[in-house]
């Protein structure tokens, strides 16, 4: 059928006289007999992409035929996807550029032209993840943190400047500009792009951060992928995917006054986690969507990884155009977006009939309540009144609070809030939330309320525009008065760069084993992420962060108990501080100034003069420094000058770790502080690095030696082979001996023995951030396969991208039901005949003799992914194709 489809280039004429061509979806649909109105809007965008790319490598008529036949509940089919652009942040971006540099080095050694290694797609890298909050609560915090950031990261930044100069299509946005997702919304996103050949098309992207889905609020189809997938895509390799199952989520009614977009997002997260939408597209529709500003839609789209979906999509409508105007896009571009989307059937009209969906669910916005989520997962939602009881149940407060006197810091106790941070792209993208938090802060300051001394407060907006409009509104002083001075423009606390707590607080928490808390307006609260001190981490709206900071504890019912007492000793309740719709409306016009956005993004040299002064090496091929502890040439491409050969079975593998449910990429991938007693610290000291200069794991992602040593080293990970938390396991010798040691040390010994390794886990293995090192690390340790009950979408793809084979237990079977102890030797047979979704035989041999056989299901989902596995990963596959050594 696809060979007979009409693909005419039709023309739009704008009011300026400019003419823009496009490929007409309605004409394509008519010629193919497709009910375009019956397709979800996100599927329409995929259809346009596959149709437009017919004739390009990897795109076949059969793909278009299959997607044209999409129906609710229909069979899912394999299709390629190549986005229009790539979005990187620096934690995942540095390894990406390292790999590109390594590819050029490998090409040079093979006698090929290194310039062939060049991003084929527009690639934007925003430096936003590395800033740490070393100083907070002072007027100079921002300046001092930026100075420290450059001192710590100068080597990384010089390398990124080399990359910006060496690669024509790589654009690096300097530190201090904002968080990549908010910058994407306010500046980078086109909604409709015009290619070099003059053809208009939907703006699509993938990003190396889970929360790339933020951009779905603008009607831009994009999602997070691993850095490995992104690298393959930017080198022109289409990403294999399955045609999506799409869940429609109907909103009705409107939010009640005082209920925030954060409360809505947390409610949606809980509902969709309960529904089960892992790997699905979610598309929002219904009359309630009109009642949400685009900024209100942002937290809902941002948190798609928390409800497990690939996307949380809002189609383009009038709110989109309104936002584009407010953020400084030109009038001509706004007209192009509206005309194009209307012509293509991509414009959602109020009251329009819903498309067909595989499944639906519904929420009356009027039923949403103020909410908080925690203490460990974003979908653990509760009401404000329910938090005290939940905290007690989570942390065993049967005998009441334990207390520890802390000199000069008042009294610390279980439930104390030691970190309170207004942070993250999730909520600082929403002006109502920022204004609301400022109003709560101002009213509290006027009553004489302050956070207790032990609460470390910080403010890290996702954009410089936020401070600009708060200052114009006269509200920045309210944040400052409570110790929430701007300390960074970056992810900060949300990524784990919360900085050190005062020494006395740190000492008291550790010595007395206190269960203290962090409260942040972020999207992630996994164990060990925010701070090594806080076992309880709660997500909530920025105004509630202010309130809990004032209360100084989380075991409080803010709906009924006073936040604190004023200068006269009178109780002050949350209702006394909360903002009204009338107050928000008074300040909204100040947040929608196009000139402010143009000024902040128009002169990026002004943002960070130190970045401009930074000297960078030149040349098309990077000159690796053998003694660098930040950037080293990785070993991923060794042997690529030879054909791949067949896929060997896994034989007599040791189980490196036996893990439970919801093992996140925070547990697997090195993140946050580098523990002073771990293998990574020993490596750095051995290379002359002082403890004070360790920096973070994230900042050293360009050094595989550091990252290998931090893999599976999270302080809260629980390996069932040992009795304690942390990155420990048992090395099981061939003579039957056992020795408890670090996972890194065990892997070194197994590799010396010539034994492969596997990891065994429970449900949702690899949930969380799209960290490529959660796959790179295990691959370098020698892990050949992971057998789990289920996988999070991005991590499964990352494993395949590194040549690690994901297998899934059959329904109803687990490591526990099969009786696996972790001491077995594992053989996986028949891999040379591995089929997508096919069964394999697993043989587990315990130390005492005998064997257990069970069947596992391959989660290598496509034929192309099987090729990636055979080559040892997608980048090795791409390099062999470029060097013509593939067989």
From TrEMBL:
<dbReference type="InterPro" id="IPR006249">
    <property type="entry name" value="Aconitase/IRP2"/>
</dbReference>
<dbReference type="InterPro" id="IPR001030">
    <property type="entry name" value="Acoase/IPM_deHydtase_lsu_aba"/>
</dbReference>
<dbReference type="Pfam" id="PF00330">
    <property type="entry name" value="Aconitase"/>
</dbReference>
<dbReference type="InterPro" id="IPR015928">
    <property type="entry name" value="Aconitase/3IPM_dehydase_swvl"/>
</dbReference>
<feature type="domain" description="Aconitase/3-isopropylmalate dehydratase large subunit alpha/beta/alpha">
    <location>
        <begin position="77"/>
        <end position="552"/>
    </location>
</feature>
<keyword id="KW-0408">Iron</keyword>
<feature type="domain" description="Aconitase A/isopropylmalate dehydratase small subunit swivel">
    <location>
        <begin position="682"/>
        <end position="811"/>
    </location>
</feature>
<dbReference type="InterPro" id="IPR044137">
    <property type="entry name" value="AcnA_IRP_Swivel"/>
</dbReference>
<protein>
    <recommendedName>
        <fullName>Aconitate hydratase</fullName>
        <ecNumber>4.2.1.3</ecNumber>
    </recommendedName>
</protein>
<dbReference type="GO" id="GO:0003994">
    <property type="term" value="F:aconitate hydratase activity"/>
</dbReference>
<keyword id="KW-0479">Metal-binding</keyword>
<dbReference type="GO" id="GO:0051539">
    <property type="term" value="F:4 iron, 4 sulfur cluster binding"/>
</dbReference>
<dbReference type="GO" id="GO:0006099">
    <property type="term" value="P:tricarboxylic acid cycle"/>
</dbReference>
<keyword id="KW-0004">4Fe-4S</keyword>
<keyword id="KW-0411">Iron-sulfur</keyword>
<dbReference type="InterPro" id="IPR000573">
    <property type="entry name" value="AconitaseA/IPMdHydase_ssu_swvl"/>
</dbReference>
<dbReference type="Pfam" id="PF00694">
    <property type="entry name" value="Aconitase_C"/>
</dbReference>
<dbReference type="GO" id="GO:0046872">
    <property type="term" value="F:metal ion binding"/>
</dbReference>
<comment type="similarity">
    <text>Belongs to the aconitase/IPM isomerase family.</text>
</comment>
<comment type="function">
    <text>Catalyzes the isomerization of citrate to isocitrate via cis-aconitate.</text>
</comment>
<dbReference type="InterPro" id="IPR015931">
    <property type="entry name" value="Acnase/IPM_dHydase_lsu_aba_1/3"/>
</dbReference>
<dbReference type="InterPro" id="IPR036008">
    <property type="entry name" value="Aconitase_4Fe-4S_dom"/>
</dbReference>
<dbReference type="InterPro" id="IPR018136">
    <property type="entry name" value="Aconitase_4Fe-4S_BS"/>
</dbReference>
<comment type="pathway">
    <text>Carbohydrate metabolism; tricarboxylic acid cycle; isocitrate from oxaloacetate: step 2/2.</text>
</comment>
<keyword id="KW-0456">Lyase</keyword>
């Amino acid at each position: 059928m696809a060979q007979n489809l009409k693909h005419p280039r039709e023309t739009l004429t704008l009011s300026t006289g400019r003419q823009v061509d496009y490929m007409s979806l309605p004409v394509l649909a008519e010629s193919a007999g497709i009910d375009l109105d019956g397709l979800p809007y996100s599927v329409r965008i995929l259809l346009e992409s596959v149709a437009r790319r017919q004739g390009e490598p990897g795109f076949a008529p059969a793909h278009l035929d299959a997607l044209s036949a999409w129906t609710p509940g229909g069979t899912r089919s394999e299709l390629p996807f190549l986005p229009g652009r790539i979005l990187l942040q620096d934690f995942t971006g540095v390894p990406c550029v390292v790999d590109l540099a390594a590819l050029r080095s490998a090409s040079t050694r093979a006698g090929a032209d290194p310039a062939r290694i060049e991003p084929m797609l527009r690639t934007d890298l925003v430096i936003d993840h590395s800033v740490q909050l070393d100083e907070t609560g002072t007027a100079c915090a921002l300046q001092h943190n930026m100075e420290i950031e450059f001192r710590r990261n100068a080597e990384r930044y010089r390398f990124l400047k080399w990359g910006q100069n060496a690669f024509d299509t790589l654009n690096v946005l300097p530190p201090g500009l904002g968080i990549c997702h908010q910058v994407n919304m306010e500046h980078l996103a086109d909604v409709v792009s015009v290619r070099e050949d003059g053809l208009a098309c939907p703006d699509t992207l993938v990003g190396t951060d889970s929360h790339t889905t933020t951009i779905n609020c603008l009607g831009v189809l994009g999602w997070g992928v691993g850095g490995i997938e992104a690298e393959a895509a930017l080198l022109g390799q289409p990403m294999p995917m399955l045609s999506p199952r799409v869940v429609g989520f109907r909103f009705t009614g409107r939010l009640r006054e005082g209920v925030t977009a954060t409360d809505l997002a947390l409610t949606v997260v809980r509902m969709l986690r309960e529904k089960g939408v892992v790997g699905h597209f979610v598309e929002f529709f219904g009359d309630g969507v009109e009642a949400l500003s685009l900024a209100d839609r942002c937290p809902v789209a941002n948190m798609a990884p928390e409800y497990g979906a690939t996307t949380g999509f809002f189609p383009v409508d009038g709110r989109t155009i309104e936002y584009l105007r407010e953020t400084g896009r030109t009038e001509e571009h706004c007209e192009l977006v509206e005309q194009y989307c209307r012509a293509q059937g991509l414009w959602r009209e109020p009251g329009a009939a819903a498309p067909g969906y595989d499944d639906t669910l519904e929420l009356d916005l009027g039923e949403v309540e103020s909410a908080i989520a925690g203490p460990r997962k974003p979908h653990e939602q509760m009401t404000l009144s329910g938090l005290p009881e939940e905290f007690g149940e989570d942390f065993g407060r049967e005998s009441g609070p334990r207390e520890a006197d802390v000199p000069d810091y008042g009294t610390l106790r279980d439930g104390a809030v030691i970190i309170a941070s207004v942070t993250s792209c999730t909520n600082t993208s929403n002006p109502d939330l920022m204004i609301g938090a400022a109003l709560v802060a101002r009213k509290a300051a006027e009553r004489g309320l302050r956070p207790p001394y032990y609460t470390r407060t910080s403010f890290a907006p996702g954009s410089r525009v936020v401070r600009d409009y708060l200052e114009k509104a006269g509200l920045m002083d309210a944040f400052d008065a409570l110790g929430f001075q701007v300390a960074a423009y970056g992810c900060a606390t949300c990524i784990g760069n919360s900085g050190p707590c005062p020494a006395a607080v740190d000492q008291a928490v550790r010595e007395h084993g206190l269960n203290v808390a962090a409260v942040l307006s972020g999207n992630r609260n996994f164990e060990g992420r925010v701070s090594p001190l806080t076992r309880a981490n709660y997500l909530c709206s920025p105004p509630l962060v202010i309130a809990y900071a004032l209360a100084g504890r989380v075991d409080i019912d803010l709906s009924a108990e006073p936040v604190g007492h004023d200068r006269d000793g009178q109780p002050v309740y949350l209702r006394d501080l909360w903002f009204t719709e009338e107050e928000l409306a008074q300040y909204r016009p100040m947040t929608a100034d196009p000139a402010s956005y143009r000024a902040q993004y128009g002169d990026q040299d002004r943002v960070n003069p130190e970045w401009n002064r930074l000297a960078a090496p030149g040349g098309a091929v990077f000159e690796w420094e053998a003694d660098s502890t930040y950037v080293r040439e990785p070993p991923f491409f060794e042997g690529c000058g030879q054909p791949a050969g067949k896929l060997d079975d896994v034989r007599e593998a040791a189980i490196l770790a036996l893990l439970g449910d919801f093992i996140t990429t925070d547990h697997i991938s090195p993140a946050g502080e580098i523990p002073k007693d771990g293998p990574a610290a020993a490596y750095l000291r051995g290379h002359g690095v002082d403890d004070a200069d360790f920096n973070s794991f994230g900042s050293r992602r360009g050094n595989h030696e550091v990252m290998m040593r931090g893999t599976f080293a999270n302080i809260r990970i629980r390996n069932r082979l040992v009795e304690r938390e942390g990155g420990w396991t048992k090395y099981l010798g061939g003579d039957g001996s056992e020795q408890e040691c670090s996972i890194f040390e065990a892997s070194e010994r197994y590799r010396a023995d010539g034994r492969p390794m596997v990891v065994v886990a429970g449900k949702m293995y690899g949930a969380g951030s799209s960290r490529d090192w959660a796959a790179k690390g295990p691959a370098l340790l020698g892990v050949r396969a992971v057998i789990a009950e289920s996988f999070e979408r991005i991590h499964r793809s990352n494993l395949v991208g590194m040549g690690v084979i994901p297998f899934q237990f059959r329904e109803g079977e687990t490591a526990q039901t099969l009786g696996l102890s972790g001491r077995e030797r594992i053989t996986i047979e028949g891999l040379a005949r591995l089929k997508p979704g096919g069964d394999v035989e697993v043989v587990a041999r315990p130390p005492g003799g005998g064997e257990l056989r069970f069947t596992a299901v391959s989660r290598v989902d496509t034929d192309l992914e099987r090729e990636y596995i055979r080559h040892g990963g997608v980048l090795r596959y791409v390099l062999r194709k470029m060097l013509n050594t593939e067989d």
